[in-house]
Amino acid sequence: MCTAATYQTKDFYFGRTLDYEFSYGDQIAITPRNYPFSFRHAGEMNTHYAIIGMAHVAGNYPLYYDAINEKGVGMAGLNFVGNAAYADVTSDRDNIAQFEFIPWILSQCATLSEVRTLLERMALVATPFNEQFPLAQLHWIISDKTGSITVESMADGLHIYENPVGVLTNNPPFPQQMFQLNNFMHLSPKQPVNTFSDDLALTAYSRGMGALGLPGDLSSASRFVRVAFTKMNAFSGDSEKESVSQFFHILGSVDQQRGCCEVADGKYEITLYTSCCNVTKGIYYYTTYENHQISAVDMHRENLDGGALICYPVIQGEQINYQN
Ligand SMILES: C[C@H](CCC(=O)NCCS(=O)(=O)O)[C@H]1CC[C@H]2[C@@H]3[C@H](O)C[C@@H]4C[C@H](O)CC[C@]4(C)[C@H]3C[C@H](O)[C@]12C
Protein backbone atom coordinates (compact mmCIF):
# COMPACT_ATOMS: atom_id res chain seq x y z
CA MET A 1 0.00 0.00 0.00
CA CYS A 2 1.06 3.52 -0.51
CA THR A 3 -0.22 6.92 0.48
CA ALA A 4 0.42 10.34 -1.07
CA ALA A 5 -0.42 13.77 0.34
CA THR A 6 0.05 17.49 -0.18
CA TYR A 7 0.54 20.21 2.41
CA GLN A 8 0.64 23.99 2.13
CA THR A 9 2.40 26.38 4.48
CA LYS A 10 4.58 29.22 3.17
CA ASP A 11 5.76 26.71 0.53
CA PHE A 12 3.98 23.82 -1.14
CA TYR A 13 4.84 20.25 -0.11
CA PHE A 14 4.12 16.95 -1.84
CA GLY A 15 5.14 13.42 -0.90
CA ARG A 16 4.25 9.81 -0.43
CA THR A 17 4.92 6.62 1.46
CA LEU A 18 6.05 3.72 -0.67
CA ASP A 19 4.85 0.54 0.96
CA TYR A 20 5.87 -2.81 -0.42
CA GLU A 21 7.51 -6.08 0.53
CA PHE A 22 10.68 -5.45 -1.48
CA SER A 23 12.58 -2.60 -3.08
CA TYR A 24 13.23 -2.34 -6.81
CA GLY A 25 16.50 -0.55 -6.02
CA ASP A 26 15.74 3.14 -5.71
CA GLN A 27 17.77 6.28 -6.18
CA ILE A 28 17.05 9.96 -5.96
CA ALA A 29 17.32 10.91 -9.62
CA ILE A 30 17.59 14.39 -11.08
CA THR A 31 16.79 14.68 -14.76
CA PRO A 32 18.37 17.93 -15.96
CA ARG A 33 16.88 20.11 -18.69
CA ASN A 34 18.94 18.70 -21.55
CA TYR A 35 18.59 14.99 -20.83
CA PRO A 36 17.06 13.63 -24.05
CA PHE A 37 13.74 11.86 -23.53
CA SER A 38 12.81 9.49 -26.30
CA PHE A 39 9.11 8.68 -25.94
CA ARG A 40 8.04 5.35 -27.42
CA HIS A 41 5.15 6.81 -29.45
CA ALA A 42 5.46 10.57 -28.91
CA GLY A 43 8.87 11.41 -30.33
CA GLU A 44 11.98 13.02 -28.93
CA MET A 45 12.17 15.78 -26.33
CA ASN A 46 15.63 17.24 -26.00
CA THR A 47 14.95 20.17 -23.67
CA HIS A 48 12.39 20.32 -20.91
CA TYR A 49 11.87 21.25 -17.27
CA ALA A 50 14.21 19.63 -14.75
CA ILE A 51 12.79 16.85 -12.57
CA ILE A 52 13.79 15.34 -9.21
CA GLY A 53 12.28 12.24 -7.65
CA MET A 54 12.60 8.66 -6.52
CA ALA A 55 13.29 6.29 -9.38
CA HIS A 56 14.65 2.98 -10.41
CA VAL A 57 17.21 3.83 -13.08
CA ALA A 58 17.32 1.19 -15.82
CA GLY A 59 19.50 1.56 -18.90
CA ASN A 60 20.07 5.24 -18.06
CA TYR A 61 16.29 5.85 -17.97
CA PRO A 62 14.63 7.25 -14.79
CA LEU A 63 11.62 5.05 -13.99
CA TYR A 64 10.06 7.51 -11.55
CA TYR A 65 7.77 6.47 -8.72
CA ASP A 66 7.17 10.05 -7.54
CA ALA A 67 8.76 13.33 -8.58
CA ILE A 68 8.43 17.09 -8.83
CA ASN A 69 9.60 19.54 -11.46
CA GLU A 70 11.37 22.86 -11.16
CA LYS A 71 8.11 24.74 -11.91
CA GLY A 72 6.12 23.46 -8.92
CA VAL A 73 4.21 20.39 -10.12
CA GLY A 74 4.36 17.08 -8.21
CA MET A 75 3.22 13.63 -9.28
CA ALA A 76 3.17 10.13 -7.76
CA GLY A 77 2.09 6.68 -8.98
CA LEU A 78 0.40 4.33 -6.52
CA ASN A 79 -0.79 0.76 -6.98
CA PHE A 80 -4.24 0.37 -8.49
CA VAL A 81 -4.18 -3.37 -8.97
CA GLY A 82 -7.16 -4.98 -10.65
CA ASN A 83 -8.55 -1.63 -11.79
CA ALA A 84 -5.81 -0.09 -13.94
CA ALA A 85 -6.14 -0.85 -17.66
CA TYR A 86 -4.14 0.80 -20.41
CA ALA A 87 -5.25 1.67 -23.93
CA ASP A 88 -4.09 0.55 -27.36
CA VAL A 89 -2.10 3.01 -29.46
CA THR A 90 -4.36 5.17 -31.66
CA SER A 91 -3.49 7.87 -34.19
CA ASP A 92 -5.59 10.69 -32.69
CA ARG A 93 -3.92 10.87 -29.25
CA ASP A 94 -0.59 11.48 -27.55
CA ASN A 95 0.18 7.83 -26.76
CA ILE A 96 2.17 7.71 -23.53
CA ALA A 97 3.38 4.46 -22.04
CA GLN A 98 2.51 3.97 -18.39
CA PHE A 99 6.19 4.20 -17.35
CA GLU A 100 6.57 7.49 -19.30
CA PHE A 101 3.66 9.26 -17.64
CA ILE A 102 5.64 11.10 -14.93
CA PRO A 103 8.37 12.32 -17.35
CA TRP A 104 5.73 13.30 -19.94
CA ILE A 105 3.84 15.53 -17.53
CA LEU A 106 6.67 16.95 -15.45
CA SER A 107 8.92 17.71 -18.40
CA GLN A 108 6.43 20.13 -19.97
CA CYS A 109 3.78 21.33 -17.49
CA ALA A 110 4.43 24.34 -15.28
CA THR A 111 0.96 24.30 -13.67
CA LEU A 112 -1.91 21.94 -12.96
CA SER A 113 -3.94 23.83 -15.52
CA GLU A 114 -1.37 22.92 -18.19
CA VAL A 115 -1.54 19.31 -16.98
CA ARG A 116 -5.31 19.27 -17.53
CA THR A 117 -4.85 20.57 -21.07
CA LEU A 118 -2.19 17.98 -21.90
CA LEU A 119 -4.35 15.17 -20.51
CA GLU A 120 -7.21 16.08 -22.87
CA ARG A 121 -5.32 14.60 -25.80
CA MET A 122 -3.35 11.88 -24.02
CA ALA A 123 -3.90 8.12 -23.77
CA LEU A 124 -1.98 5.91 -21.36
CA VAL A 125 -0.96 2.93 -23.43
CA ALA A 126 0.08 -0.61 -22.59
CA THR A 127 3.66 -0.47 -23.85
CA PRO A 128 5.99 -2.06 -21.27
CA PHE A 129 9.45 -0.66 -20.53
CA ASN A 130 11.00 -4.05 -21.32
CA GLU A 131 10.46 -7.74 -20.61
CA GLN A 132 12.00 -7.45 -17.17
CA PHE A 133 9.56 -4.69 -16.15
CA PRO A 134 6.00 -5.50 -17.16
CA LEU A 135 3.29 -2.86 -16.83
CA ALA A 136 2.72 -1.53 -13.34
CA GLN A 137 -0.95 -1.17 -12.45
CA LEU A 138 -1.06 2.33 -11.03
CA HIS A 139 -3.14 5.45 -10.60
CA TRP A 140 -1.67 8.90 -10.05
CA ILE A 141 -2.02 12.08 -8.05
CA ILE A 142 -0.81 15.26 -9.75
CA SER A 143 -0.64 18.48 -7.75
CA ASP A 144 0.52 22.05 -7.65
CA LYS A 145 -0.10 24.74 -5.04
CA THR A 146 -3.58 25.39 -6.51
CA GLY A 147 -4.89 21.83 -6.09
CA SER A 148 -4.71 18.18 -7.08
CA ILE A 149 -6.19 15.77 -9.58
CA THR A 150 -6.35 11.97 -9.67
CA VAL A 151 -5.79 10.13 -12.95
CA GLU A 152 -7.15 6.60 -13.38
CA SER A 153 -6.84 4.71 -16.64
CA MET A 154 -9.47 1.96 -16.57
CA ALA A 155 -11.18 -0.40 -18.99
CA ASP A 156 -13.81 2.29 -19.70
CA GLY A 157 -11.26 5.03 -20.43
CA LEU A 158 -9.10 7.69 -18.82
CA HIS A 159 -10.68 9.32 -15.78
CA ILE A 160 -9.50 12.65 -14.42
CA TYR A 161 -10.98 13.63 -11.07
CA GLU A 162 -10.63 16.79 -9.06
CA ASN A 163 -9.01 15.76 -5.77
CA PRO A 164 -10.07 18.39 -3.22
CA VAL A 165 -8.54 16.55 -0.27
CA GLY A 166 -5.07 16.23 -1.85
CA VAL A 167 -4.46 12.62 -0.82
CA LEU A 168 -4.39 9.27 -2.59
CA THR A 169 -4.02 5.66 -1.48
CA ASN A 170 -4.81 2.52 -3.51
CA ASN A 171 -8.07 0.70 -4.27
CA PRO A 172 -11.00 1.24 -4.67
CA PRO A 173 -11.37 3.83 -7.46
CA PHE A 174 -11.11 7.45 -6.36
CA PRO A 175 -14.84 8.38 -6.44
CA GLN A 176 -15.55 5.60 -3.93
CA GLN A 177 -12.71 6.75 -1.69
CA MET A 178 -14.10 10.28 -1.70
CA PHE A 179 -17.66 9.10 -1.12
CA GLN A 180 -16.76 7.13 1.99
CA LEU A 181 -15.54 10.35 3.65
CA ASN A 182 -19.26 11.12 4.10
CA ASN A 183 -19.34 8.36 6.68
CA PHE A 184 -16.80 10.22 8.79
CA MET A 185 -18.08 13.80 8.63
CA HIS A 186 -18.82 13.73 12.37
CA LEU A 187 -15.12 13.30 13.26
CA SER A 188 -13.46 16.30 14.83
CA PRO A 189 -10.20 17.31 16.49
CA LYS A 190 -12.36 18.98 19.16
CA GLN A 191 -13.80 17.17 22.15
CA PRO A 192 -17.29 15.75 21.54
CA VAL A 193 -20.37 16.92 23.40
CA ASN A 194 -23.10 14.55 24.41
CA THR A 195 -25.74 14.50 21.68
CA PHE A 196 -26.43 10.83 22.34
CA SER A 197 -29.15 11.43 24.94
CA ASP A 198 -30.06 14.22 27.38
CA ASP A 199 -31.05 11.51 29.81
CA LEU A 200 -27.53 10.08 30.11
CA ALA A 201 -24.57 11.78 31.83
CA LEU A 202 -22.00 10.89 29.14
CA THR A 203 -18.62 12.61 29.40
CA ALA A 204 -15.47 13.01 27.33
CA TYR A 205 -13.18 11.11 29.70
CA SER A 206 -10.13 11.22 27.42
CA ARG A 207 -8.52 13.65 25.01
CA GLY A 208 -8.90 12.77 21.33
CA MET A 209 -12.44 11.44 21.56
CA GLY A 210 -13.61 13.71 18.75
CA ALA A 211 -11.95 11.34 16.31
CA LEU A 212 -13.32 8.13 17.83
CA GLY A 213 -14.21 5.96 14.85
CA LEU A 214 -11.28 7.01 12.68
CA PRO A 215 -10.21 3.69 11.15
CA GLY A 216 -6.86 2.46 12.40
CA ASP A 217 -6.13 -0.48 10.12
CA LEU A 218 -3.79 -0.59 7.12
CA SER A 219 -6.35 -1.17 4.36
CA SER A 220 -6.24 1.34 1.58
CA ALA A 221 -9.76 2.62 2.27
CA SER A 222 -8.94 3.13 5.95
CA ARG A 223 -5.62 4.84 5.24
CA PHE A 224 -7.44 7.20 2.88
CA VAL A 225 -9.77 8.37 5.66
CA ARG A 226 -7.02 8.51 8.26
CA VAL A 227 -4.56 10.52 6.20
CA ALA A 228 -7.37 12.80 4.95
CA PHE A 229 -8.42 13.57 8.52
CA THR A 230 -4.82 14.11 9.61
CA LYS A 231 -3.92 16.30 6.65
CA MET A 232 -7.10 18.40 6.70
CA ASN A 233 -6.60 19.16 10.40
CA ALA A 234 -2.81 19.40 10.43
CA PHE A 235 -1.45 22.63 11.82
CA SER A 236 2.16 23.80 11.97
CA GLY A 237 4.42 26.79 11.78
CA ASP A 238 5.43 27.75 8.26
CA SER A 239 9.23 27.59 8.50
CA GLU A 240 10.97 24.93 6.41
CA LYS A 241 11.82 22.75 9.39
CA GLU A 242 8.36 23.01 10.95
CA SER A 243 6.66 22.29 7.61
CA VAL A 244 8.85 19.31 6.72
CA SER A 245 8.53 17.90 10.22
CA GLN A 246 4.75 18.25 10.12
CA PHE A 247 4.59 16.65 6.68
CA PHE A 248 6.41 13.55 7.92
CA HIS A 249 3.99 13.42 10.84
CA ILE A 250 1.02 13.52 8.46
CA LEU A 251 2.35 10.53 6.51
CA GLY A 252 3.40 8.94 9.81
CA SER A 253 -0.32 8.43 10.45
CA VAL A 254 -0.29 5.68 7.80
CA ASP A 255 3.16 4.22 8.44
CA GLN A 256 3.35 0.43 8.01
CA GLN A 257 5.35 -1.52 10.57
CA ARG A 258 6.95 -4.84 9.66
CA GLY A 259 4.74 -7.65 10.88
CA CYS A 260 1.31 -6.00 10.61
CA CYS A 261 0.55 -6.64 6.93
CA GLU A 262 1.48 -10.14 5.77
CA VAL A 263 1.39 -10.51 1.99
CA ALA A 264 2.83 -14.04 1.77
CA ASP A 265 4.17 -16.55 4.26
CA GLY A 266 6.64 -14.59 6.37
CA LYS A 267 6.65 -11.63 3.94
CA TYR A 268 5.45 -8.26 5.13
CA GLU A 269 4.64 -5.00 3.45
CA ILE A 270 6.39 -2.08 5.15
CA THR A 271 6.88 1.61 4.51
CA LEU A 272 10.12 1.35 2.52
CA TYR A 273 10.47 5.11 2.30
CA THR A 274 8.56 8.32 2.94
CA SER A 275 9.21 11.37 0.80
CA CYS A 276 8.44 15.04 1.37
CA CYS A 277 9.22 17.41 -1.48
CA ASN A 278 9.38 21.13 -1.06
CA VAL A 279 7.87 21.66 -4.50
CA THR A 280 8.42 25.40 -4.35
CA LYS A 281 12.16 25.05 -3.74
CA GLY A 282 12.92 21.76 -5.53
CA ILE A 283 14.13 19.82 -2.48
CA TYR A 284 13.52 16.09 -2.09
CA TYR A 285 13.50 15.03 1.59
CA TYR A 286 13.10 11.39 2.57
CA THR A 287 13.31 8.88 5.39
CA THR A 288 13.44 5.09 5.03
CA TYR A 289 12.26 2.16 7.12
CA GLU A 290 15.79 1.70 8.39
CA ASN A 291 16.76 5.38 8.60
CA HIS A 292 14.57 7.85 10.44
CA GLN A 293 16.97 10.72 9.95
CA ILE A 294 15.71 13.07 7.24
CA SER A 295 18.04 13.18 4.23
CA ALA A 296 17.65 15.69 1.40
CA VAL A 297 18.73 16.34 -2.17
CA ASP A 298 18.30 19.89 -3.49
CA MET A 299 17.95 20.04 -7.28
CA HIS A 300 19.15 23.64 -7.38
CA ARG A 301 22.56 22.61 -6.01
CA GLU A 302 23.15 20.81 -9.32
CA ASN A 303 23.78 22.07 -12.83
CA LEU A 304 20.25 21.73 -14.18
CA ASP A 305 21.39 22.62 -17.71
CA GLY A 306 23.28 19.35 -18.08
CA GLY A 307 22.30 16.36 -20.21
CA ALA A 308 23.12 13.41 -17.95
CA LEU A 309 21.10 11.96 -15.07
CA ILE A 310 22.37 12.88 -11.60
CA CYS A 311 21.73 10.11 -9.07
CA TYR A 312 22.11 9.85 -5.32
CA PRO A 313 21.89 6.58 -3.42
CA VAL A 314 19.21 6.23 -0.76
CA ILE A 315 20.97 6.48 2.62
CA GLN A 316 20.06 3.49 4.77
CA GLY A 317 20.81 2.56 8.38
CA GLU A 318 19.71 4.46 11.49
CA GLN A 319 21.82 7.52 12.27
CA ILE A 320 21.70 7.72 16.04
CA ASN A 321 22.73 10.93 17.71
CA TYR A 322 24.45 9.75 20.92
CA GLN A 323 24.41 12.49 23.54
CA ASN A 324 27.09 11.11 25.82
C1 LIG B 1 5.19 -1.08 -6.06
C2 LIG B 1 5.02 0.43 -6.17
C3 LIG B 1 3.67 0.79 -5.61
C4 LIG B 1 3.58 0.49 -4.15
C5 LIG B 1 2.15 0.41 -3.75
O1 LIG B 1 1.28 1.14 -4.18
N1 LIG B 1 1.87 -0.57 -2.90
C6 LIG B 1 0.52 -0.85 -2.52
C7 LIG B 1 0.33 -2.32 -2.47
S1 LIG B 1 -1.39 -2.67 -2.62
O2 LIG B 1 -1.77 -2.40 -4.01
O3 LIG B 1 -2.10 -1.86 -1.71
O4 LIG B 1 -1.50 -4.06 -2.30
C8 LIG B 1 5.11 0.95 -7.60
C9 LIG B 1 5.07 2.51 -7.61
C10 LIG B 1 5.90 2.96 -8.83
C11 LIG B 1 6.20 1.65 -9.56
C12 LIG B 1 7.39 1.65 -10.52
C13 LIG B 1 7.26 2.77 -11.57
O5 LIG B 1 5.98 2.74 -12.19
C14 LIG B 1 8.36 2.67 -12.63
C15 LIG B 1 8.52 1.28 -13.24
C16 LIG B 1 7.41 0.97 -14.23
C17 LIG B 1 7.61 -0.42 -14.86
O6 LIG B 1 6.54 -0.66 -15.72
C18 LIG B 1 7.65 -1.48 -13.78
C19 LIG B 1 8.80 -1.19 -12.83
C20 LIG B 1 8.70 0.20 -12.18
C21 LIG B 1 10.05 0.40 -11.46
C22 LIG B 1 7.51 0.26 -11.18
C23 LIG B 1 7.62 -0.82 -10.08
C24 LIG B 1 6.47 -0.75 -9.06
O7 LIG B 1 5.26 -1.06 -9.70
C25 LIG B 1 6.37 0.64 -8.42
C26 LIG B 1 7.64 0.87 -7.57
From TrEMBL:
PANTHER family: CHOLOYLGLYCINE HYDROLASE, HYDROLASE
Name the record gives this protein: choloylglycine hydrolase
UniProt organism field: Blautia obeum A2-162
Pathway(s) where this gene product acts: Lipid metabolism; bile acid biosynthesis
Pfam families named among the record's database cross-references: CBAH
Keywords noted in UniProt: Hydrolase, Lipid metabolism
EC number(s) reported in the record: 3.5.1.24
Upper lineage: Bacteria, Bacillati, Bacillota, Clostridia, Lachnospirales
Residue ranges annotated for the Choloylglycine hydrolase/NAAA C-terminal domain, each copy included: 2-311
